[in-house]
Each structure stands twice: as C-alpha cells, then as structure tokens.
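Model it.
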Amino acid sequence: MRGNCSRIVFLLIVIVWAFVGSAAGQGASPSQPATSASLVAAAPASGKPAQIPSKATSAQSNFEDISAEPDPPMSLGEVARLARAKKNSAAKAVKIFDDENMPRAPISAGEKAPEFAGGGSSSGGKVTILDFWATWCGPCRHALPGLKQLQAVYGGDQVEVVSISEDEDEGEWRSFVSQNQMNWTQRLDSNHQIMRQYGANSLPTYVLIGRDGTVLQQYVGDDPDQPIIERMGQDLKKSLDGKS
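Modeled.
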C-alpha cells in the first residue's frame, strides 16, 4: 500500500514539473507573433486601441496622393514649340503697301475686275487667276509648287493663270521665271500699277475672276499647311460649273 502511494506521488511530481517547464518555454520564445490582445495592450493611455491600416487603405491613400498632384508646368521649350506651330499655321505674306500709300481698298467679290495693259480682267470667257508675287518674296517662293500644281490641273481651255511680278529688276525676274519653268502667262508690274488697281497690298495675293469678268474671291498670303490649289479649289470648281 505504501509502495503504491509512493508511485502516485512520484507521478504527480513528474506531471507538475513537465507542466512548469512547458509554460516557461512558451514565455521565453522570441518568435511568438504579437496577438491582437498584445496590440491592444500596447495602445496609448487614451484607452483607444491602435489601428492597423489595411493594404487596401494604404493603396487608396497612395492613389489619392498621386491623383491630387497638379500637372507639371510646360517648359519654355514646349511653349516656344507651340507658338511656332501656331505661327506656321497662319498664312504668310509680305506687305508692300500700307494704309498711307494704298490708293484704294481691295476689290470686293462681285465687283468688275479692272482691265490692265498687256492683259485683261478675263480672257475669252475663261476663268482667270491673278497671282501677285515677286522673286524676293519668301512666301511667294514657298507657294510656287502649289501654283504650278494649280496650273497643271486647271490651266488650259477653261482657266488662265496670270502671274504679275512686282520686281523692279527685269533681268532678275526673267531669269527666275526661266529657271523655275513658269510656263504660263507672265506680266511685269515694276511700278506696282496693276497691284494698286486691284487694291492688293501684300505678296502673294491671288485674285479669282469669273468668266464674266467679276471678282469672285481674293486670297492673301501663303498658308504652309494648305497650298493655293486647295484654298481656292471649291470656289474655282463652282465658277467652272457656272454656279458663281
């Protein structure tokens, strides 16, 4: 009987010792992750538990920060490029008359086109296109390929193109016309008389004259983005169809 009691006591001692050792091991483990209870215990003294932002909340916050940023200002180079593009889109012309030496206002659509020496307002019932230009005029030089295209497409029995040069040097004018194969009607207006008659003050200036000798439209300057054949194409087609 006494032996059995001894064994029971021994087993109880072993169980108690094992339990105490296990509890001590758990308290000393450094890798144990913090629980929600420990986080609450670590909250400030105000009594409010510490809040842990979720990944979704953090991502949303970052997105809001990015979207709230204003667009960066344009550099001086970008501003200059935009200004040049806007400037290039406008028709360019060289002004040779101003308000003081201009004898009359430009001829309006519907008015009778003036006759001039060596030519007329219209030729044999054809539609006429007057081209006021000069060899020293940069926009005129740039517009020349478009004028050649217009002459090639429309020049013939129904349309006559007449280029009227405002050059004062006849030799330079003739040389330029020859070198650039301007093989349509050419006139020299060195005293600017014809240009004054039509009230034009800038180069190049194009005047579209109908079959009946009335001015249909006037186009001033060279548009880098639209050659003259495109600018006057619709008006020219109407005049050839007898609709204007």
